[in-house]
Amino acid sequence: MSFIHPPKLTLITEDHSFKDIKQLQLGKSYTIGRKDDADIQLKNDYVSKRHAQINSDKGYFWIKDLASTNGTFLNSKRISNHPEKLKNEDRIQFGRNHSTVLMFVEGTLDDTFVDTFKSKDDQYSSEVSNKVIILNSESMDVYIRGSLLSSSLTKKEFSIFELLYGKEGKVCTKDEIAAKGWPERSEGNVADEEIHQQMKSIRQKLSVDLKENISKEYIVTYQGTGYRFNNKELKIK
Q1: What is the reported pTM?
Q2: Which of 53, 59, 51, 41 lies closest to 83, judged by CA?
Q3: 100 torsion bin: left (phi>0), alpha (psi -120 to 50), beta (else)
Q4: How far apart are CA 70 and CA 170, in angstroms?
Q5: Exposure of 5 by Cβ count < 10 A (0-12 exposed, 13-18 middle, 19+ buried)?
Q6: What is the rounded distance in angstroms from the CA atom of residue 128 to the CA atom of residue 148?
C-alpha cells in the first residue's frame, strides 16, 4: 500500500490541541516509551519505559504492546503483543490516563473533525473523571483511578463485578448474581454463603488499590436482597 500523505502520530494534549510529533516511514519501527532513547518519548507516569512499538509490514503500520504496566489501548480496546493494524484517525491511549493519547493520521485534520472530536472528548472526559473504577469487559481489566488493579479478579469475580458495574446505582439481587457467577447451575442452587465469599474477595482486592478501608461503601450490602455498586469518589469521614 502507498500513502497519499505520509502517516504521522499526533499528540492530543489535555487542552485538546493537536501536536504532530512523528512522521512515520515504511520499513522502520518505532518504540514508544518513557525512556530517553525511545523513538517516541512520552513523559508520563502511566507510560512504561518501553511501552509499545509501531512496525510496518506489507505496506501498513501495526502497533503492539510491550508488556507495559498499564496497558496500550487502541480505540479504547486493550491490545496485546499481537500486532494490530493502524487506520486513519485511530486513537492510541496509554493506560487509562486520558492525558496521553496519540492519533494515527493520514493527511491533515480539518477544522470540522477537530471541533467534533473536542465535543465528544469533553463528554467522555466528564464521564470518566467522575468514576473511581473503570472496567474493560474485553480485556477483563479493572482500573482504579487510572491504574490497573494490583490483584486481578478471577473469571467468576469479574463476571459478578461486571454485573454490578453495569447496573451502577441499582441493587443487583442475589438471584441475578447467582445467574451471572454460576451460569452452569441452571437450577440456581447457589448458597448465600458462596455469594458472600465472592463479594468479600472482590472487596478485598479493591481495597488494596483504593488505599482506604471503605470498599463496603463502593459495594453496598442490602441484607436479604443483594448488592449495589457506587462508582463516585467518596469523602473519607
Answers
A1: 0.52
A2: 53
A3: beta
A4: 30
A5: exposed
A6: 15
202-230: b or e for each residue (b if 16 or more CB lie within 10 Å)?
A: bbebbeebbeeeebeebbeeeeeebbbbe
Name residue, grid cell 459478578. 160
Q: CATH assignment of 8-130, given 3.60.20.40, 2.160.10.10, 3.30.470.20, 2.60.200.20?
A: 2.60.200.20
Helix (H) or strand (E) segment spanning residue 164: helix 155-166
**Domain ranges across the chain:** 8-130, 134-229
**What residue has cell string 493520514?**
106
CB 158 within 8 A of CB 140: yes
55-110 tens-digit pLDDT? 998 889 999 999 888 788 888 788 889 999 999 888 898 875 556 788 888 866 55
Distance CA 132, CA 139 (A): 18
According to CATH, what is the number of the domain 134-229? 1.10.10.10
Residue 188 has pLDDT above 80, yes or no: no
